[in-house]
Every structure is written in C-alpha cells, then in structure tokens.
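subagent[fold] <- orchestrator: predict structure for attached chain, return tokens only, no commentary.
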Amino acid sequence: VQLQASGGGLVQPGGSLRLSCAASGFTFSVTTMGWYRQAPGSQRELVARIAVGGNTNYADSVKGRFTISRDNAKKTVYLQMNSLQLEDTALYYCRAGSPYAYWGQGTLVTVSS
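subagent[fold] -> orchestrator:
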C-alpha cells in the first residue's frame, strides 16, 4: 500500500496550493479518502474527507477555502487550498479510510510572509 502525497511548499498568506495523494495497493474507488494535518505541538486533525459517492465534509476552519476532490481513474485525491492563512501551516497527511485505515507520509505546508 502506498499513499504518495505531494504539492506542499512555502506560500504567502492569501496564496493557494494544491495537494495530491496518489494511491496504490488497494481498491481506491471503494475507499473514503481524507486529508489530515498536524501543526507543531498540536494533535492531528481532520481537514477534509470525501466518500465514495462524492459526499464531502470539512473542518470548520477550512470551509469555503479548501476543496477536496478525487479522481478514481487516477487513484488520486486532491486538496485545493485557497486563501491560506498562517494557521494552516502544518504537515498534511493523506489517509485511506473506510474500509481501510492507511496513512501516507506527510507533505509540509508553510504559510509565511
């Protein structure tokens, strides 16, 4: 099983980034996929999740700014992050949820002026 996250980087406040997570080794199309993040000194938290049928849910802190999407043909889940704020700085992780429980490695997002 592999969950290869990419797209992190350094961005100024108000900027945008798009994270990608390429999956392999399991049946992506039947899996709920999610993005989580962990800031220094904080617990890992859910950012966004997308179910098999496309239903999504978001943390209150990112609603209206972040959009999660998936491409089953490419076995990839995306997180479009707009209007980034300093407090969005964190290590972002991709997770394959139900019916699995797999974590990918993180990709670092740093929002700084």
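orchestrator: received. Logging for downstream: Residues 65 and 71 are 20 Å apart (CA to CA). The mean pLDDT is 96.
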